[in-house]
């Protein structure tokens, strides 16, 4: 009997696929999105990404880590859904920024574009591009590293907010 209780508890905490466990429904606050992005970024930096997603084991780790910092059990499937929505938004945002005449304000993470560009992109996906126009993309640079396959790892990796290493620091790393 105690084995069953442990299995149910593990599935609850880890966000497993036990149909007898109902995962609480939570909205994604800005704080929780930041925590989720930080966790998945660390997983990507540690080469846990398998092609375009994580293994189920890694998703369970992510759910557990997120639960520890938010006290909310989103569950693996909900995390995968959030992952897909973030990836879609990052790709749409990147496509917009690649258009001639479009810039991003680094202070607000909002896009500056001529009205005709917005009209063109609204024809592609009005709902998402209206949201991008209004809100920008708070995590664009990190998401670009996660989904763009350009994450640096190893001794020489640096966050975009860090200064490049000095020549002395580089020699120490070699």
How are the SSEs ordered, and which strands pair?
Elements lengths: L1 H13 L15 H16 L10 H15 L5 H22 L5 E3 L4 E3 L2 H21 L4 H9 L18 H7 L1
Helix pairs in contact: 2-3, 2-6, 4-5, 4-6
Pfam families: Myb_DNA-bind_3
InterPro entries: LIMYB, Myb/SANT-like_dom
Protein name: Myb/SANT-like domain-containing protein
Strand residues, percent: under 5%
Return the string of H and E elements: HHHHEEHHH
Shape: globular
| Measured distance between first and last alpha carbons | 55 Å
Class by alpha and beta content? mainly alpha
Poorly predicted residue ranges: 4-22, 150-154, 156-161
Question: What does this 3D model show about the protein?
Answer:
A hairpin with a 4-residue loop joins strand 1 and strand 2 (110-112). With 174 residues, the chain is mostly helical. The protein has a two-stranded antiparallel sheet with strand order 1-2. It is 59% helix and 3% strand. Helix 4 packs antiparallel against helix 5 and helix 4 packs across helix 6 (140-148). It is globular, with a radius of gyration of 19 Å. It has one domain. The longest helix has 22 residues, at 76-97. Residues 28-120 form the Myb/SANT-like domain. Residues 151-174 are annotated as: Disordered. It comes from Zingiber officinale. This is Myb/SANT-like domain-containing protein.
């Amino acid at each position: 009997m105690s084995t069953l209780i442990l299995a149910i508890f593990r599935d609850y905490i880890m966000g497993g696929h036990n149909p007898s466990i109902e995962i609480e429904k939570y909205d994604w606050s800005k704080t929780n999105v930041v925590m989720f992005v930080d966790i998945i970024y660390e997983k990507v930096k540690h080469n846990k990404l398998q092609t375009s997603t994580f293994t189920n084991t890694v998703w369970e780790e992510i759910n557990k880590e997120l639960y520890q910092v938010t006290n909310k059990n989103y569950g693996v499937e909900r995390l995968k859904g959030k992952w897909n929505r973030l990836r879609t938004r990052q790709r749409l945002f990147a496509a917009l920024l690649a258009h001639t005449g479009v810039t991003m304000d680094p202070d607000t993470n909002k896009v500056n574009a001529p009205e005709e560009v917005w009209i063109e992109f609204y024809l592609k996906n009005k709902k998402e591009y209206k949201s991008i126009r209004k809100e920008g993309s708070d995590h664009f640079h990190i998401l670009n590293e996660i989904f763009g396959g350009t994450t640096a790892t190893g001794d020489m990796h640096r966050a975009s907010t860090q200064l490049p290493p000095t020549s002395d620091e580089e020699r120490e790393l070699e």
